[in-house]
Amino acid sequence: MHGTDAPGPASPFRHELLVVGSANADLVVGVDRRPGPGETVLGSDLVVHPGGKGANQAVAAARLGARTALLARVGDDAHGLLLRASQQEAGVDTSGVLVGGAPTGVALITVDPSGDNSIVVSPGANARLTPEDIRAARPLLASAAVVSVQLEIPPATVTETARSLGPGSRLVLNPSPPAPLPDEVLAACDPLVVNEHEARYILGESAGSTPESWARGLTALGPRSVVITLGAEGALVSDSHEGDPVRVPSPRVDAVDTTGAGDAFTAALAWRLGLGDALAEAAAFAVRVGAAAVTREGAQASFPTAEEVAAL
Ligand code: RIB
Prior knowledge:
Distance between the termini: 21 Å
CATH superfamily: Ribokinase
CATH topology: UDP-N-acetylmuramoyl-L-alanine:D-glutamate ligase
Number of helices: 11
Oligomer: single chain
Strand order of the largest sheet: 5-4-1-8-9-10-11-12-13
Bound molecules: alpha-D-ribofuranose
Shape: globular
CATH class: Alpha Beta
């Protein structure tokens, strides 16, 4: 399936988006409130969803109509089967999904009545996605207009991904969960996509108090562009070659579960940038995708089609 804005036959890329990242089984429990240290609370029945920031992005883009591939590692187990099935159902090319080495990654997720979540990830097989795996997949990397990566895989694997881009490919990085980033990775980002928490982590003491100040601080670290997600407020975009940062508002929706909404936003943004949208234009589409994603439960299960985004 292809979006109406898919590139014509002149595009040299087989995939509009390649996601390099994690695949987790999400073990989700609803709670009235999260337990404090040493405390036990009762929650809802357990639900198991396919998740992981990488796998989520790939499904989100494919559901919008993007020609998408995933480069990831899962275990040779039931969770790995669940994850591969969800990718294939969405139409993602899974030829880059490696199997074995450790159990599939797991995310333990609690969701409170406001839709906010807390997540602990056991990386499992994600931690075994190595720089060698990336080098072996260079033809896949060269096949993609945009390569999108996050930080639930080893830092050396992220760096190797940034080094292995094909000619004309663009790197999108969401540093989640936040961790130190080498200068060469920061310099390759176009854009670096962060939320407030990630912006403050990267900038430390010098962060300042407004999204505009975070954008200026992050741009000074070397990325070609920066996008800051602001939850219900939308996003702020900043291109190092253009003027001041620009705010992109989000439609108002009733949030049920925010899990994976950032992944859907980043996937939509990355895809549309690869189709040739300007940064603010791609972000205006992506905030609608993120808004639609918070109105339903789960991560991948909540991601909208292009028609659902248009109807929002
Ligand atoms: O961004 C949401 C994702 O974070 C979840 O699906 C979970 O697997 C964790 O990776």
